[in-house]
């Protein structure tokens, strides 16, 4: 779990006092991704142990012939493509939720200010001149 917030200090789109963890981009936070194994434990986007089910898929005949000639497993490729599409959808949904949380956070800070600023102002007021 190293490197999760490595670029926190380098962010320039927010002042340090107003940066919230929710404002970090998803590539800065370890998330889930189907079929990615980099030594970290990740949550699968679907039940990889579920029973296989036959389905009909229509593909370009030349594409199928070339894939078979190369020994490609079309079922595995289709499964990987669907899993990748679902992961992209989940990421887009997560990014939208994070963006909304950041907007709410920024609105709160604009209305009430940050706790850090309040503590700093209180400490500055308490210091003898």
Integer count of domains = 1
Q: State the major sheet.
A: none
Query: Cα-atom Rg, whole angstroms?
Result: 24 Å
Q: Could you state the oligomeric state of the chains shown?
A: single chain
Quick structural gist:
The protein is an all-alpha fold. 47% of the residues lie in helices and 0% in strands.
Structure description:
This protein is about 45% helix and about 0% strand. Mean pLDDT is about 75; it is low at about 1-35. The chain has one domain. About 0% of the residues are buried. The protein is mainly α and about 130 residues long.
Labels describing this entry:
single chain; 129 residues; mainly alpha; 3 helices; 47% helix; 0% strand; rod-shaped; disordered N terminus
């Amino acid at each position: 779990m190293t490197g999760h917030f490595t670029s926190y200090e380098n962010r320039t789109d927010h002042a340090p006092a107003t940066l919230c963890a929710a404002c970090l981009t998803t590539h800065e936070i370890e998330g889930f991704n189907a079929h990615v194994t980099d030594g970290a434990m990740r949550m699968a986007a679907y039940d990889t142990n579920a029973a296989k089910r036959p389905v009909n898929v229509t593909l370009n005949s030349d594409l199928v012939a070339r894939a078979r000639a190369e020994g490609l497993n079309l079922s595995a490729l289709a499964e990987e493509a669907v899993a990748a599409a679902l992961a992209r959808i989940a990421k887009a949904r997560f990014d939208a939720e994070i963006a909304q949380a950041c907007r709410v956070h920024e609105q709160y800070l604009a209305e009430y200010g940050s706790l850090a600023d309040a503590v700093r102002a209180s400490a500055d007021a308490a210091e003898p001149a």
